[in-house]
C-alpha cells in the first residue's frame, strides 16, 4: 500500500517519559515508521531533548509558553503554523487529545486531519477552572464537527460522543506489550523486593485519587510497602499534601517518575497494583499492570471497568473504606494473584495489541486518501 507522510501534534513529545498520550504516540509513531511511512512528531522543547531523528521518526522541537493554561495550546498553535509554512508534502495530520483540536480548522488548510480523544478534560474537577473548562468544551465541539475522522480510545467515550453529537466515531484503544521480566536487580537498588510492595503509577494530580490510596493503605495492616511512582503535572501543592499525609510512615515511598527497565521491574514484581482514579479516558497504566499479569484493584469508573472487569478487584470510586477492605481482601487471598493476573495478561494480548491498533489506525488514514 502507498506510504504516507503523517504528522502528530498535540502531545508533549517523544521519547515518552510520562503521560499516557505520549506513550500512545511513541508506540504508534515508531510502528508506523517501521512500516515505511514518513512520520513527524512535534515535541515541546522542554519535554524532548532529542532533535532530528528518533527510531526512524522526524522529531520537530518547538517552544511552548511554560504556563499550565498556555503550554499545550501555544505549542499546538506553533506546530500548526510550522506545518502551514512547510513546503513538504503532508498527507495526514493526527491531532492527539481534544483540547488541541481547537486548531483543526486551521490545520485542514494543510492536510486531512484525524483526531484522537484520550478523555474529557473538563471532567477533571478543580484542575483548570471555569474558563479553561469552557475552552475544553468548545474544543470538543470542534473535534466532533471539523475532524475528517474521529477516534476514541475507549468504548465509553465512543458511546458518549455518538450519543451527544450523532456523528460516527471510530474506537481504537490504547495498547500494552506483555514483556517477560524475571529479575529484580533494578528495584533492589531502591531497597524493594519482589512481592514486597503495593504499587501505584501515574501523575500525582487530585483526580488520580492517590490521597484515597494513602488513607486506605494507612488503615490496612500490612508489612508491604506502598510505592507511589509519579510526579507533578502542575500539581506541586497536591504532592505536598500527599507527603504530609504519609509523614511518619516509612513504608510509604515516593519515587517520582520512573522509566525503562526500572519501571518494568516495578510493575513485574509488585504484589498488587492499585488504580484509584476518579476520571479516565482509557487507563494506559492499568493496561500496563495487566500486561505484567499483576493482580489489580481499581476504582469502578466506566473507563476502568471497560478494561479490567472480571480480571481484577473493583472498589467504589472515592470510597476509602471500600478501598481499604478490598486491599485487605486482596492481600489475604494471594491465590487471586496468579488466576486474575494471567487472565489480565491474556486480555491485553487479545484486545490491546499495539500492532493491531496501528493497523486499524492505518486503515483510517487510508480511508481519507480515496
Describe this structure in words.
This protein has about 375 residues and is α/β, with parallel strands linked by helices. The chain folds into 2 domains: about 5-175 and about 355-365, Glycogen Phosphorylase B (Rossmann fold), CATH 3.40.50; about 185-350, 3-Layer(aba) Sandwich (Rossmann fold), CATH 3.40.50.2000. The chain is about 40% helix and about 15% strand. It is built from 14 helices and 14 strands. The chain has an 8-stranded mixed beta sheet, sandwiched between helices. It has a 6-stranded parallel beta sheet with strand order 11-10-9-12-13-14, sandwiched between helices. α1 (about 20-35) links the parallel β1 (about 5-10) and β2. The longest helix is centred in the middle third of the chain and has 17 residues, at about 130-145. It is globular and about 60 Å long. The model has no long low-confidence stretch (mean pLDDT about 90).
Give the CATH topology of the largest domain. Answer: Rossmann fold
Structural category is: alpha/beta
Distance between the termini: 12 Å
Main sheet record = 8 strands, mixed
Number of beta strands:
14
Please identify, by name, the CATH architecture of the largest domain: 3-Layer(aba) Sandwich
Tell me the count of domains. 2
> Mean of residue pLDDT?
91
How much helix, percentage-wise, in residues?
Answer: 40-55%
Order of helices and strands: EHEEEHEHEHEHEHEHEHEHEHEHEHHH
